[in-house]
Amino acid sequence: MSVALIILLVTPLLLIFVYVKQKYAYWSRQNVPFMEPHFPYGNFKDLNRKSTADVSQDAYRQMKDVGPFYGAYFFLQPLIIVTDVDLIKTIFIKDFNFFPDRGVYFNERDDPLTAHMFAIEGNKWRSLRQRLTPTFSSGKMKMMFPTLAAVGDNFSDFLVKEIGQGQVVEVKDFMARFTIDIIGSCAFGIECNSFKDPHGRFREFGKRVFETPRNSQLVRLGLILFPELGRRLRVKALQDDASEFFYGVVKDTVAYREKNAVERKDFLSLLLDMKKDGVDFTMDEIAANSFIFFAAGFETSSSNQTYCLYELALHPEYQEKARQCVLKALKKHGSMTYEAVCDMQYLDQCINETLRLYPSVPVLERRAFRDYKIPGHDLVIPKGMKVQIPAFAIHRDERHYPDPEVFDPDRFHPEEVAKRHICTFLPFGEGPRICIGLRFGMMQSRVGLATILSKFRFSTCSKTLIPLEYSSKSFILTPREGLWLRVEPL
Fold first, then answer.
1. Closest Cα to residue 265, out of 153, 148, 152, 154?
2. Is the distance from CB of 76 to CB of 40 less than 8 angstroms?
3. What does the pLDDT look like over 461-486, one tens digit per residue?
4. Which is it for strands 167-170 and 77-82: parallel, antiparallel or unpaired?
5. Are 453 and 326 in contact (CB under 8 A)?
6. Residues 352 and 425: beta-carbon distance below 8 Å
7. Pairing relationship of beta strands 380-381 and 372-373 according to DSSP bridges
8. Which terminus has fewer CB within 10 Å in the chain: N or C?
9. SS (H, E, C) 20-81
10. Residue pLDDT, tens place only, 171-184
11. pTM for this one?
């Protein structure tokens, strides 16, 4: 082989090597503690086999004592991970204007359902948030409650018939059917009948959104790294059939209601009422935000209820205490009313302790809108850099929660909550970009759990996985396998 050919082959490799070394020297040049990266994945190679929660917690345990933040690399892209709760509060609340966006991929032109409030950015987000906030007030939740309670009654009847004298059941499946029916009814005004038809179209397309991504892992990573390029190339994130189904449902329902002057106490009617009052909603915006209401409410709420029942099965003394709390409230108020579910303090404590141990989104992200100098430090976070908040790991830090792996609802007694920093508990995020559906999600969990705890007892069985393992296929915290429990009537 000639010298010229050797040089021709070696030179590009050498240039690549120098480029990678230069990229991976970013945090060293900034004098910031960092995790040693490994080409080409940076610090995220384990995402191939571990969940986001596990990868994040492994890193947190390694780096939490080096200071209020540390550097990491997503492939060749540097990002900063913040672990100090005071700094997290500053980023989420005080200096929110520097970090208003999540940096989630969306494509408004080619994939309109992705342009929902969780993803969109800038003035469009501010305008949409302002317009939608009234639809999630406590008054609007109370208005929707009868619709939700009716689904709870159907759920109860279904369980009585299904369980009989006792069965081992896959709890996540049951809770998913319950939340699908609630969201279908409260968002779209549609009876999904998931109890009678577990393979209904809403259920199947909902599963496709979370379990069957449109794109390969490589493409999804590319969209995270280069969202603008993805939009220019017109890359879609949702499966065409799922997108067409949800868009079609909303469009047809809106047309029917407007033609026939139909009034229902649900999310879609609230949007249409606002539109009548002069609020400028496009069909794309109505469809996209109905979709995220469905997608977020379906997966996160069903997971929360599933994990809560799992922990209560492991701790029968807490389960009985939660049951007595529910029965007392039902007796006091006469039935499953809005006032009754708001009067179940211990059940709320169980739900919140479950959210602490199993936050649906294990890692929260923000993107710097402009250069930001960290208060009290020399470091400037440059415009466009991602900031990660490891919520799952913070929730399991013994500095904030003694014996953090132990399920203990008493941590969320109001007196105990008042003693803790606001950013030690982040299941819904915090600040202006906190989850807008927080009230609805909590109400949904209260009704589901109160309904079944008032009539059934849960315990572990031979198929119950202890400890739980999490799926590496979803950015939402979901069990790797089914979650099986024994269910018996009281």
1. 148
2. yes
3. 999 999 998 988 777 898 888 899 99
4. unpaired
5. yes
6. yes
7. antiparallel
8. N
9. HHHHCCHHHHCCCCECCCECCCECCHHHHCCCHHHHHHHHHHHHCCCCCEEEEEECCEEEEE
10. 988 898 898 888 88
11. 0.92
